[in-house]
User: Fold this.
Amino acid sequence: MQDRDHCHISSTSDASAPHSLPHEGPSLPPMELMDRAPEDEVEEAGDRGNKGLSPPANERFLGEHNDSIPPHADLNILSISEHIAREALVQYTAHKCCYRIAPAKRMVIQNLTPLNTFRYRLQTFTEARETFPISEPYDGGFVDSSDVAPAPAPWALAVDAPPLFMDCEMHIPVPHTYSVQDCPSCQGRGKNRCHSCNGCGKRRCTACSGTGWQDASNQSCLFCSGSGKRRCSNCHGCGWRKCIRCYGKGLLLYHSELTITWKNSIAEYVVDKNSGFPIYHLQEVTGKEIFSDENQVVYPIVNFPEPAIDQGSKSCIAQHQMQFASSSRILRQKQTIELIPLTKVDYDWRGKIYSFYVFGKENKVYTEDYPGKCCCSVM
Assistant:
């Protein structure tokens, strides 16, 4: 018997119940990190010797949550220039069938409007355990039954957890759950009646359709010697076939198999400022992480400069608590807040005003009224 105790990890240990855990309050990033121009970040990153490094620990609020949050900072700062906006639209049209690139190159940009928004993301890493009966042909030998020792409960088995926030599944045979029983498919005989010949070992001859005679020559059939029946090829004439479940042994070795499933579940909330931009497109891009909080369980954000994030955090956490509290154990949670760049670009092309949006750190483009569409464009 081979124990299947390997783990299959795809890319999203025992834990106590969440309500018994100590609370470490989430901390918010300094406000000066949230209203700083991109060029200021580059200069300071250079001083730290590596562009893009997160702020040192002493630049963050630590410990319990501080209720005295400074007033709402102006987050509507431009994150792109006219040159970047133009290049983004040029790249966008270059990858669109039947889009002419001339308007993107020659347009006259009238206005850049920052519409930066926030994305809250909650990751909940859970572990679920369930046992299933497994059987295999019994070839003799030692049987690790409950007579040897009591079988452990599913959560009593110690197992090393995979890396945090990665989906994984593991199958482990539960010790002291083995037993030998007659195969239910053949009632312990090791063989079953052949269905092709119904156990008689012979089938109707197909050459003479069971008549025993050759129609053309009016002679007895050469294939069945005039009997109208031929030996069954499936059971070789014996009327029985070996049981495929027990491989003819007549006995099965049963045991319980523990299936452990680790899953990383994600809930997101994006602040919709009703700017006309479909916020579901923000799933395609990344933003600048301005806040991160990780613990065995996390608690809702409070007093964030954008009030909708407080409610979004509360809703996501409540949703995961309700979803996983009864079916699995929460091993770890992580919540982050990203500032996602979003800019509306108004431009003039041949005396008419059009617009498009540039969003995410990737500078992706969304537009509905691009003037350079050919008639063969598929919407």
